[in-house]
TrEMBL record:
The gene is Slc51a_1. It comes from Pteruthius melanotis. It is a multi-pass membrane protein. The chain crosses the membrane at residues 12-34, 46-67, 73-94, 136-158, 178-199, 211-236, 256-276. The keyword ATP-binding does not apply. InterPro entries: Ostalpha/TMEM184C. Its main location: membrane. It is found in: Membrane. It holds the Pfam family Solute_trans_a. Keywords: Membrane, Transmembrane, Transmembrane helix. This is OSTA protein. GO terms for cellular component: membrane.
Length: 300
């Protein structure tokens, strides 16, 4: 633990960030109670899972900040949880459309645009795919595979780490860290692609469900938890972030990333409470039917 070696400003910073984490947890608990009481049981667990993403990442980052040697385990825990949340977000969009049968009925003659990010945004020539049970199955499989395979790969990483074969910042082609990281990166892109395809189709229909700000919050968590942390770790590995005894460059990079995540996830938790705290019985799917004809009236 670093608490014994901290000066007064350092202790104040640690105390402030820990307080922000505790407030984020309390805000989430209050929001979970509200969701449990006000939202139908078919959507209750999915929305609670999605709202829990920011507080869980904040909590794991706080633990990693106080106990630097636990960083690998806390990062892996946050990664496993968020892999499940990505699948839950896709399922939430389907549920908000009234379920799979209602979604197929609404978009009976519609098509998915697959030339979207993060995989195929530079391929506008790709054909549009008909919306059928099979294509919905493949989209759900795209996020489900990530929720299944990422925990398996993380478990494999921990096994190799305990045996001394897995070094997190050793990206040599001869080591397993590079190959496991690349495989997880590919799985992540496919999962995010599936969510983006679904969102592009339903964003107008679900505008009255606040789906656009919900998707924006989800995207912020993806960017901050993955891209920001990766960039900071690369800077630390290349010694751009200088060491500060007793912390090495890589340890200090993790330390900075965790502190930023605590503040960012605190803000996202508070904003999520505002966005998701709606009376969902006033926003049933029949009220959104008026949004669909706009899509149908568009010229080919």
């Amino acid at each position: 633990s670093l608490s014994a070696g901290l000066d007064l400003p350092g202790r104040f910073l640690f105390a402030t960030l820990t307080l922000m984490t505790l407030i984020a947890i309390l805000v989430f608990i209050e929001e979970a109670v509200y969701i449990y009481r006000k939202i139908p049981s078919s959507k209750r667990s999915i929305i609670i899972w999605i709202n829990a993403a920011a507080p869980v990442i904040s909590t794991t980052s706080c633990i990693g900040m106080w106990v630097p040697r636990s960083t690998m385990f806390t990062d892996f825990t946050a990664g496993i949880f968020f892999a499940i949340v990505i699948h839950k977000f896709l399922m939430m969009m389907i549920k908000e459309c009234g379920g799979q049968k209602m979604l197929l009925r609404r978009f009976e003659n519609g098509r998915f645009t697959i030339s979207t990010g993060p995989c195929c945004c530079c391929c506008p020539c790709l054909p549009r795919v008909p919306i059928t049970r099979q294509t919905l199955f493949w989209l759900q499989l795209g996020t489900f595979q990530f929720a299944v395979f990422r925990p398996v790969l993380i478990f494999l990483s921990i096994v190799l780490w305990t045996n001394g074969n897995y070094i997190l910042y050793n990206l040599s082609p001869k080591g397993p860290a590079l190959w496991i990281s690349c495989f997880i990166g590919a799985l992540t892109l496919f999962a995010l692609w599936a969510v983006a395809i679904m969102f592009r189709k339903v964003r107008i229909l679900l505008k009255c469900k606040n789906i656009i700000p919900k998707f924006a919050l989800y995207q912020f968590i993806v960017i901050l938890n993955h891209l920001q942390t990766t960039i900071i770790n690369i800077f630390a590995t290349q010694k751009v972030i200088p060491c500060a005894p007793p912390l090495s460059s890589t340890a200090r990079g993790s330390y900075i990333a965790q502190q930023l995540l605590i503040m960012e996830m605190f803000l996202i938790t508070v904003i999520s409470r505002v966005v998701y705290r709606r009376k969902y019985h006033d926003l049933d799917p029949p009220e959104c039917v008026a949004e669909e004809p706009r899509d149908k009236k568009q010229p080919p």
